[in-house]
Specification:
The protein is of the alpha/beta class. The protein has helices at 86-93, 98-103, 108-117, 120-136, 152-168, 189-203, 221-231, 249-255, 269-275, 286-292, 299-304, 325-334, 340-347, 349-353, 381-386; strands at 2-13, 30-40, 43-49, 61-62, 67-70, 72-74, 139-145, 172-180, 209-214, 236-241, 260-263, 281-284, 310-311, 372-375, 393-397. The protein has two domains: 2-70 and 362-397, Urease, subunit C, domain 1, CATH 2.30.40.10; 73-353, TIM Barrel (Alpha-Beta Barrel). The protein contains 15 helices and 15 strands. The strands form two sheets. Strands 6-7-8-9-10-11-12-13 form an eight-stranded parallel beta sheet. Strands 1, 2, 3, 4, 5, 14 and 15 form a seven-stranded mixed beta sheet that branches. Helix 5 runs parallel beside helix 6 and helix 12 runs antiparallel to helix 13 (340-347). The two termini are 14 Å apart. The protein binds N-(iminomethyl)-L-glutamic acid and fe (iii) ion (FE).
């Protein structure tokens, strides 16, 4: 049992059973002033205002009047990768687009060749540096994708590394098989699509989800449909869609009951319509809009249409070399005009939903995991998005 007392603002309170917030509800969250929170067996046992009658013990934490909030949930990352792509950074500065870098054998294929040369142990060690960085920045639940192996052996190596991370860190980890990220070396396009389909049963032993990069120059809607059909009953889809073009990826994702469709830098009203009334959550990745100079997704329009929106980091070496969810939240406000509460819900409860963990993470709710950020005194939700680079975390609990 432990107690956090002297909480100035307890933020992110939701009643039991709310798995995501949509439309106007995305702009609301429960807040208590002068609060306490009791933790039992790693879960939120109770919270309230005023004086708490539970005994204070050595384990009790004095929040010193600061804010306590649920930790960040990052539903879309590619943090298991080898080496770096900083060599391509100069090409990018000199004006080459993401597609141009990829067509010269850079991009995902560059990461794949590095990963194929890297021993499993080394890959784990390199990836853990990023996992620790994310946890220190307040991320308590994360999804991690494969997709830099691009052949059966190396894809399974990635999935084993993700499983090992899952077993070793206090944060919640979800694993996604993204064999269909690019065409593996030595395969024709058609051969590789078949190879991905053939990898599914083995991948399903490790992974929770399947993803396809359904976009111009990568995988078509028809191929995505075939891959997801083969994965039916084995892996729930999460789709990369509409990053480079209006791809049809949203619609094929909805058809296959994807948990989320991600990126959405290029969206028309048809995508918003297609998502209404479905269990698929639109997820935007402002870090890749920032890094690649792409349009920011129309998060506000989705919310106006009554949908809920999640935001995630997309942490990867090619389009978003940052896993800083506080910066993601700030970009939600600054670039996508979300209110601080809308952006906060997007990086906590809704991003937990986008990786299927919102029954356990993403809000202050009795029974959920006590996966929390205690801030330094003086911070509130608006200020962490506004003054977006000043360190604000006193302690991350998970
Ligand atoms: O989500 N768009 C596809 N995949 C990643 C980028 C991967 C890479 O460039 O290494 C993304 O942006
Ligand atoms: Fe991605």
């Amino acid at each position: 049992m432990s107690l956090i007392y002297n909480i100035g603002l307890l933020v992110g309170i939701q009643p039991e059973g709310v798995l995501r917030v949509e439309g106007a509800a995305q702009g609301r969250t429960g807040i208590l002033e002068n609060a306490w929170l009791r933790i039992e067996d790693g879960r939120i046992a109770d919270y309230g205002t005023g004086f708490c009658h539970s005994e204070r013990s050595e384990e009790s934490i004095d929040a010193r009047g600061a804010m306590v909030m649920p930790g960040f949930c990052d539903s879309h990352t590619h943090i298991v990768y080898a080496g770096s792509r900083d060599g391509e950074f100069l090409d990018k500065i000199n004006g080459l687009s993401y597609e141009e870098i990829a067509s010269r054998g850079g991009g995902i294929l560059n990461s794949a060749s590095l990963l194929n040369k890297t021993q499993e142990e080394d890959l784990y060690v390199q990836s853990m540096v990023r996992v620790r960085e994310m946890m220190a920045k307040g991320t308590v639940a994360m999804e991690i994708k494969s997709g830099y192996g691009l052949n059966p052996e190396a894809e399974m190596k990635m999935l084993r590394v993700i499983r090992r991370i899952k077993e070793t860190v206090p944060a919640a980890v979800k694993s996604t098989f993204l064999g269909a990220h690019a065409i593996g070396q030595g395969y024709t396009h058609e051969e590789y699509v078949q190879a991905v389909i053939d990898m599914i049963p083995q991948a399903a032993q490790y992974a929770d989800f399947i993803d396809v990069f359904c976009d111009e120059g990568f995988f078509t809607v028809e191929e995505t449909d075939r891959i997801l059909t083969a994965a039916q009953h084995l892996l729930t889809p999460k789709i990369h869609a509409n990053e480079l073009a209006v791809s049809g990826g949203v619609q094929v994702g909805v058809k296959h009951k994807a948990l989320s469709v991600d990126h959405l830098e290029r969206t028309t009203d048809a995508e918003i319509e297609a998502l209404k009334g479905t269990w698929t959550i639109p997820t935007m990745l402002p870090g890749s809009s920032f890094f690649l100079g792409l349009p920011y997704g129309r998060a506000k329009d989705y919310i106006k249409a009554g949908l809920g929106v999640a935001l995630a980091s997309d942490y990867n070496p090619g389009s978003s070399p940052s896993g800083d969810m506080r910066f993601v939240m700030a970009q939600g406000c600054i670039k996508m005009r979300l209110t601080p509460i809308e952006a906060f819900n997007a990086v906590t409860l809704n991003s937990a939903y986008a990786m299927g963990v919102s029954a356990e993470y993403g809000s202050i709710t009795r029974g959920k995991k006590a996966a929390l950020i205690i801030t330094e005194p003086g911070w509130d939700l608006t200020k962490i998005a506004y003054q977006y680079q000043t360190p604000f975390i006193s302690k991350v609990i998970m």
